[in-house]
Write a structure and sequence with these properties.
Shape of chain A: globular
Number of strands of chain A: 10
Order of helices and strands of chain A: EEEHEEHEHHHHEHEHEEHH
Largest sheet of chain B: none
Structural class of chain B: mainly alpha
Number of helices of chain A: 10
Helix content of chain A: 25-40%
Oligomer: heterodimer
Distance between the termini of chain B: 39 Å
Strand content of chain A: 15-25%
């Protein structure tokens, strides 16, 4: 059963299962975090510090809890009935579960990109400005500027600038995913969560997204869930390996892939299971 | 395919092969004939309606008032208008309730016990005989207001339409990909914004189709309006007065001992079928969308 939620004491945090190597003052901090779908526990005592403006990759076999943890950062899991948690997640030192935190405001500060690109059935333009529209932004100049800035940031501007008002559904798979990234960053969030953003894309489109991710980390703290260990090793600064709901190892990516400490990590990255 | 061929496969299959082939052909033919048979009642009905209803069909029957017994003139314009009025009232009452109810039970509280109850009751209601809807409106409106009226007929039709609209709307909402909701909530939209900007526009064609089917069904009903709106020989001038409807017109006139009146009932039947199938076809062609 979940422990009742206690507003954490950070200094008591025992780094039980993970090796922590904080590079910079941490940005997202996960403390003794348990998560439950109904009675089924999906995450066990996760402790993790995700630094600012770095790419942190979550790897591990299916069902290991990496997406579940990712979806907790913007509390998307709360759309599912009967979920509960124990422990805490803080951003900038503020608990995201604090009763004073507005879930809407939290999600506006955290962009999210999903496994399958999910553009709205509207024009490209309206897709990108949706996060602004829902905050009541109506000024044409601001919207126009946002569209151009966001689409340039995802290197889609030149490809689509002449058909901004056509339906988004005419784009290719890779373009659609870049459009979704543009939409996710349109309201200038601080954190970008990516849940297997390339798993439905071909290698060329994947390469473009990967380049983009490396580019975007100048402005955003990026957490990416990926099934591809090559992808994790190519683009991430830090890698966390999850297995059966536990964080097995968390370290700098090159260390994880060259000299992992845990046997399970080594078995996984060398392809012995998973 | 030749049965006497010497092809390798035929040799292999041996003698049972042509027995099977014949049996297969026979069953295929049987299935075809049976499915053709289902069209027979429909087309014979249409044929009968056209044969009996066409002779009197002209502009006057659509605009005229029902003739007194024995007279050979007039029409059932007031009945067409009355049906439209009552279906309209039913729609005004049932559509907002049904659609908003569906939004609540599917978008706001999909897993709540209350929603399950609403869903269950709606399913039960679809199976309730339409005359019970009439009885309800009789007790609820006719007895309290003291007269038969278009309003009472409309309430009866609303009760009839409500579950159809609610269930169709919920199905329409279920058809909207949850990835849209994820995207919208993920961008910090509220439930209302997500429903209003994203979910409803996607679900609208299917919702409208459900509404149109409910309209078509209500327009053809006799029992709910028979003892709530009664009938009227004249044009409707108030929602609170007895009102003619196509179905009750048919019911009344078909049992009169005058051949002209009976023929007029046939013509009214033809018009009613035109209206109902027209609405259905319209709904199918406008609102049917390809699944993405």
């Amino acid at each position: 059963m979940p422990n009742s939620f206690s507003p954490s004491d950070p200094h008591q945090a025992t780094s039980s299962s993970a090796t922590l190597v904080p590079l910079e003052p941490s940005f997202i901090e996960v403390k003794e975090f348990d998560f439950f779908y109904g009675k089924k526990q999906a995450l066990f005592d996760i402790n993790l510090e995700i630094p600012d403006r770095q790419v942190t990759a979550f790897i591990g076999p299916s069902g290991c809890g990496k997406s579940t943890l990712l979806r907790n950062f913007n509390r998307m899991n709360e759309l599912i009935p009967n979920v509960s948690h124990a422990g805490d997640i803080t951003i900038h030192g503020t608990s995201i579960f604090d009763p004073s935190v507005e879930i809407i405001a939290l999600r506006r500060r955290i962009g999210m990109v999903f496994q399958k690109s999910n553009p709205f059935p509207m024009s490209l333009y309206e897709n990108v400005v949706y996060p602004l529209r829902i905050t009541g932004q109506r000024q044409r100049a601001v919207l126009d500027e946002t569209v151009e800035r966001s689409l340039k940031a995802v290197v889609l501007w030149d490809e689509v600038k002449d058909r901004l008002h056509e339906s988004a559904l005419g784009l290719s798979g890779g373009q659609l995913q870049r459009l979704c990234i543009a939409r996710a960053i349109a309201s200038q969030p601080e954190i970008l969560l990516m849940d297997e953003p390339c798993s439905a894309l071909d290698p060329i489109a994947t390469a473009k997204i990967e380049e983009l991710i490396v580019e975007l980390k100048k402005d955003f703290t990026i957490v990416i869930v990926t099934h591809s260990m090559h992808q994790a090793s190519r683009i991430s600064d830090l890698t966390a390996f999850f297995y059966l709901g536990k964080l097995i190892e968390f370290d700098q990516t090159n260390k994880i892939f060259t000299a992992p400490i845990q046997k399970q990590t080594e078995d996984y990255i060398t392809g012995r299971f998973g | 395919m030749s049965l006497t061929g010497t092809h390798f496969f035929h040799q292999q299959a041996g003698r049972t092969s042509w027995v099977r082939l014949v049996r297969n052909q026979a069953l295929t033919l049987l299935c075809f004939l049976l499915s053709a048979l289902t069209l027979v009642p429909l087309f014979s009905l249409l044929f009968l309606l056209l044969k009996k209803g066409l002779p009197l069909l002209n502009f006057n029957v659509l605009t005229g008032l029902p003739p007194a017994p024995g007279l050979e003139e007039g029409g059932f314009g007031n009945a067409i208008l009355g049906t439209a009025m009552m279906v309209g009232i039913g729609l005004i009452l049932a559509a907002p309730l049904g659609i908003l109810g569906a939004i609540f039970i599917h978008e706001y509280a999909p897993y709540a016990r209350f929603s399950a109850v609403v869903r269950f009751v709606a399913k039960l209601l679809t199976g309730i005989p339409s005359i019970i809807c009439g009885a309800f409106a009789f007790a609820f409106v006719v007895l309290t207001t003291g007269n038969f009226s278009a309003l009472a007929g409309g309430v009866a039709l609303a009760v009839l339409m409500l579950p159809t609209i609610l269930i169709a709307s919920e199905q329409a909402l279920r058809g909207v990909s949850s990835s849209y909701r994820d995207a919208s909530y993920g961008l910090g939209a509220t439930a209302f914004q997500t429903i209003w900007h994203i979910v409803l526009p996607e679900a609208l064609p299917a919702i409208m189709m459900g509404v149109m089917i409910a309209i078509a069904r209500a327009a053809g009903e006799t029992a709910p309006v028979l003892f709530t709106a009664l009938f009227n020989q004249n044009w409707a001038h108030s929602l609170m007065a007895p009102t003619a409807s196509l179905s009750v017109f048919i019911y009344n006139f078909s049992s009169l001992p005058y051949s002209y009146q009976v023929q007029m009932a046939w013509t009214a039947s033809l018009i009613l079928v035109f209206i109902v199938t027209g609405i259905n076809i319209l709904a199918q062609s406008i609102f049917r969308r390809n699944t993405h």
